[in-house]
């Protein structure tokens, strides 16, 4: 990330310089063209053959010299730009590693995996609302993506677009259709949508006051238990309808925060309702890769320098542990206390009869025949009694 920022700084310098030169060139050439065309017009109005007087000749000479000088200056400025641009290239070379070959395996994305990767990219595009690009990718890569991967996103984006335009109708319709499921997952979406609809009525002024009250009666009753404070605040805002409610102590209800919040709430709750993750899996992998790559590149360089790169046999585990930070913690991962390896599908955690848990490989290593002594307590048992644990 630091590398990207360093390149970004160089890029900013180039853009500033570009902007400056652009404005200057524009100004100079306009002036130049203007004065030369004036001169040309003058020549054309002086009809017939004539000879230039000395003064006229010197005016023409001056104009030509001026033009030559200006063009020379522009050329020099343009040349200076080259060095600034080439600094960006150097910053990229200095800050970013172009060779990721050492930390990947040949053919990792070939065959069936290439197909899966394309599907993941398509799903990401659909998720971002870039439906036509997703369709084009499917078509060009000769893949048929199940419509169930696409349709939920089409609907989500249609509703989100409406919310961005401050149109609550589609979202309210969706929330009403799914109200039971939303309530079961503890969603606040429906209340927040009705709150915005109510505030829209309030904003319309005193003429719509009775309509606002009716809306509140019809819709807020079932939310009072859970959102008592918020409903009280909304009812309080009614007092200021005859005046200017947006300049009242309730003015904060009308800034854009509630609209930003509703888009977030809708995306989160609708994804949960549809069984989708809020973040795109591809975006999460990419972000995790950006954090992990620098550390991996460093360790690979160190391993190569010491000629021990074969230690990392390129299987399903990394040569070092990389902490991606809390936001990447999705579920607990079991690490075997004996072999100090993370559990995997082929080496899952096993619960011994005494309650201690070790990996299956460790279990096999510790067992002798039908006997296994737990490494943590004196319990002796049959290794076949151990049960696999699924987190
Ligand atoms: Zn034990």
TrEMBL record:
Coiled coil: none annotated. One of its GO terms (cellular component) is nucleus. Its main location: cytoplasm. GO terms for molecular function: ubiquitin protein ligase activity; zinc ion binding. One of its GO terms (biological process) is proteasome-mediated ubiquitin-dependent protein catabolic process. It is found in: Cytoplasm. Residues 336-377 form the RING-Gid-type domain. Keywords: Cytoplasm, Metal-binding, Zinc, Zinc-finger. Residues 152-209 form the CTLH domain. It comes from the Eukaryota. InterPro entries: CRA_dom (IPR013144), CTLH/CRA (IPR024964), CTLH_C (IPR006595), Fyv10_fam (IPR045098), LisH (IPR006594), ZF_RING_GID (IPR044063), Znf-RING_euk (IPR027370). A zinc finger (RING-Gid-type) spans 336-377. This is Uncharacterized protein. It comes from Allacma fusca. The lineage of its organism: Eukaryota, Metazoa, Ecdysozoa, Arthropoda, Hexapoda.
């Amino acid at each position: 990330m630091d590398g990207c920022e360093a390149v970004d700084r160089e890029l900013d310098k180039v853009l500033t310089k570009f902007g400056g030169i652009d404005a200057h060139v524009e100004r100079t050439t306009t002036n130049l063209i203007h004065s030369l065309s004036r001169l040309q017009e003058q020549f054309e109005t002086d009809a017939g053959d004539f000879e230039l007087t000395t003064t006229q000749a010197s005016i023409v000479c001056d104009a030509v010299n001026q033009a030559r000088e200006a063009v020379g200056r522009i050329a020099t400025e343009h040349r200076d730009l080259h060095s600034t641009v080439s600094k960006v290239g150097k910053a990229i070379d200095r800050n970013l590693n172009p060779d990721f070959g050492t930390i990947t395996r040949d053919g990792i994305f070939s065959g069936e995996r290439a197909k899966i990767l394309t599907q993941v990219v398509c799903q990401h595009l659909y998720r971002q609302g870039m439906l036509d690009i997703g369709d084009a990718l499917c078509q060009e890569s000769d893949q048929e993506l199940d419509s169930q991967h696409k349709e939920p996103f089409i609907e989500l984006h249609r509703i989100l677009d409406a919310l961005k335009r401050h149109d609550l109708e589609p979202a309210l319709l969706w929330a009403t259709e799914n109200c039971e499921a939303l309530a079961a997952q503890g969603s606040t979406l429906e209340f927040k949508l009705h709150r915005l609809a109510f505030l829209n009525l309030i904003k319309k002024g005193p003429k719509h006051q009775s309509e606002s009250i009716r809306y509140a009666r019809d819709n807020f009753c079932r939310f009072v238990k859970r959102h008592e404070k918020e409903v009280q605040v909304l009812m309080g805002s009614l007092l200021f309808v005859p005046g200017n409610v947006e300049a009242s102590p309730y003015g904060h209800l009308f800034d854009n925060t509630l609209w930003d919040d509703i888009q977030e709430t809708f995306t989160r709750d609708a994804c949960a309702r549809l069984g989708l993750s809020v973040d795109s899996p591809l975006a999460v992998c990419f972000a995790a890769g950006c954090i992990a790559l620098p550390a991996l590149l460093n360790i690979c360089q160190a391993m190569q320098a010491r000629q021990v790169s074969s230690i990392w046999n390129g299987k399903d585990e990394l040569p070092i542990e990389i902490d991606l930070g809390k936001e990447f913690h999705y579920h607990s991962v079991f690490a075997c206390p004996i072999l100090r390896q993370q559990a995997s599908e082929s080496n899952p955690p096993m619960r011994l009869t005494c309650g201690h848990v070790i990996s299956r490989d460790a279990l096999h290593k510790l067992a002798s025949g039908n006997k296994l002594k737990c490494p943590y307590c004196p319990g002796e048992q049959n290794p076949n009694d151990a049960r696999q644990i699924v987190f």
